[in-house]
Specification:
243 residues; alpha/beta; Arc Repressor Mutant, subunit A; single chain; 7 strands; two-stranded antiparallel sheet; globular
Length: 243
């Protein structure tokens, strides 16, 4: 006889939904997101891991590098979350790949969560912030979805109403970022955004001021060559984000 799956309480289920939202998490990021102490989150994660709902990426080198363990959903958690009405089943299905994804992908998702929290802290009660998970199914976004989408809670005529944000690490080659810029040019030119609404301000976050200058020159040349005025694509060093 098959052993029944352990039941989840409301706090545990909420934590699984947060992991679904960001894909990969650490105890520290989860604690900051929830506004609770880290040991409280760690205890809940330990229970979820013991009961087969989350698994951990960790090796001995993490301790040497002072790098935290990261957590993601297990197939058992994915099966359980299918029962929830607020979960996108197609997006949920992609989570089966998480156990085989590389460290660069994990780091990228952790950086997205870090940026989400930084924006929330720097601009309290200013934006509704949506992750890539929440944007799935909305056909007015580019097919390759942005990392974050921000919508101003109280629109202000002197400030952009919405922002699209993509985050690139110091290890990302410039040609990859240029491909992302090209995607936004094409999406803008094809009038892919909601009719009657201004195109969001696009912010591409990079690691260095040298990269900022190089990519800004690329955008200026592209606008001149293609006669397209996409004035709201901004290359910004991550330390200089200002909205």
């Amino acid at each position: 006889m098959k052993k029944p799956e352990p039941k989840l309480n409301a706090k545990q289920l909420q934590l699984l939904k947060i992991i679904y939202l960001f894909r990969f998490v650490t105890p520290s990021l989860l604690a900051e997101y929830r506004g609770v102490l880290k040991w409280t989150i760690q205890n809940t994660l330990n229970i979820l891991m013991k009961n087969g709902y989350v698994t951990r990426r960790y090796s001995k080198t993490y301790k040497i590098d002072r790098k935290p363990a990261s957590y993601h959903l297990t197939p058992q958690a994915i099966k359980r979350l299918r029962e929830e009405p607020d979960i996108n089943k197609q997006v949920l299905h992609t989570r089966y790949k998480d156990r085989s994804l590389g460290q660069a992908f994990i780091n990228h998702n952790l950086n997205i969560m870090r940026m989400y929290l930084d924006i929330t802290k720097a601009y309290p009660n200013t934006f509704n912030i949506f992750t890539k998970t929440e944007l799935a199914g909305y056909d007015y976004f580019p097919e390759s979805l942005p990392d974050l989408y921000l919508q101003r809670i109280n629109p202000d005529s002197t400030q952009p109403e919405a922002y699209i944000i993509d985050i690139f690490s110091e290890h990302t080659m410039n040609f990859i970022i240029k491909k992302r810029i090209d995607l936004y040019f094409k999406h803008y030119e094809d009038e892919g955004w909601l009719e009657g609404y201004s195109y969001p301000n696009v912010i591409i976050l990079v690691s260095s001021s040298t990269t900022v200058a190089s990519l800004n020159r690329y955008i200026e040349k592209k606008m001149d060559d293609e006669y397209i005025d996409v004035s709201d694509i901004n290359i910004v060093a991550q330390s200089s984000l200002d909205m």
